Amino acid sequence: MPHQEEERTFRSYGKEEGEHYAKRRPDYHPSVYKAILNHHTYTGGKLDTLLDVGCGPGSHAVRALAPQFSHAIGIDPGEGMISAAKTLLAAEPILTKTSESIHFEVGSAEQLEKIVPSNSVDLLTASHAAHWFDMPVFWKSAANVLRSGGSVAIWASGEIRINPNIPAGRAIQQTIDGFWDRYFKEFIVPGNEMIKHSYADLLLPWTLPEPIEDFEKDTFFRREWSPNESFFDVENSEVDLDRWEKMMGTGTPVTRWREAHPEDAGTERDPLRKCRREMEKLLHEAGVEKGKETVKGYTKGVLLMVKRK
Question: Where is the Methyltransferase type domain (predicted)?
C-alpha cells in the first residue's frame, strides 16, 4: 500500500477482526449508493463490471451495488478481510444481475492490473479506503483497468458526533472529546485526518505532481452530506451504548491503542469502556433509567466521482 511508514498508515485486519468489523460497522445510507449509480449512469457509465477496492469484509459497498452489475469483484490487501468476506458471502449470498456470485481476491489499489484486465471495469469504488492509497500510483492503475466512460467513486465519512438535543448530549460529546484527546490522539495518522477534512486534500488526477490526462476534470462530481442528512443507515436513530462502543471500536486509532495495550483491550481499563461508563453516568444524571441508555449521532460525508475519458 502507501510508501509512508506502513504501521502508521494502512493497517491490515485478521479474519476474526474482519468478521467483527462486518458486524459492527454500519452500512451507508441508500442515498449514498443512489447518488453513485445516478451520476455513473447519467454520464454514460455502463453496468457490466464493478470493482470495489479496499472492500474489507465485503459487507457494504460491493454487496449493495453488485445486484446492479453483471460482474462484481471485491479486493482488499488484507488476507483476513478477504477470508471474512468469503465467509460472509457463503452465509449470506448476494448475486449480480446475471446471477453470478461476487468474486473476492487479495489485491492492492496500486496493482489493479493483477486482478482485472485492462479496459474492463465500468465502476471502481473505494469506500472509506482511499486515504490509505498511494494516490499517484492508484490513479495510474485505475486509468489502465477502467473502460472509456468508466467512473471512480470514492467516499468517506467524517467523525461521528453526538446529537446535542438528546439528554446530556453536549456533556456526552465533551466527554468523548476528552477521552479521544487523552488516549487516542497519538494514534491518529494522516489518513484519519484526511477523512476528518472530507477529502479536501485527496490527490486527484489533475492535482498530482505529474498529472494524469486520462480522466475528465470538467465532469468531476463532489457531493457532501450535511449533519442534517443521513450518511449511515443508523444515523439519527437511537443506538444503545453496547452498539455505540462496538461501532467506535472499529476506528483505526482505537484499534491501534488496543494493539499497544493488549492486556487492557476490551476490559474496564479500556478507554472506550471508561468513556462508556462516563456516558452512562451522565445519562442517569439526566433522568435516563438504567438499562435504557441510548444515544443518537450524526456525521458528515463526502463522495467524489471521477470519469475516465
Answer: 51-154
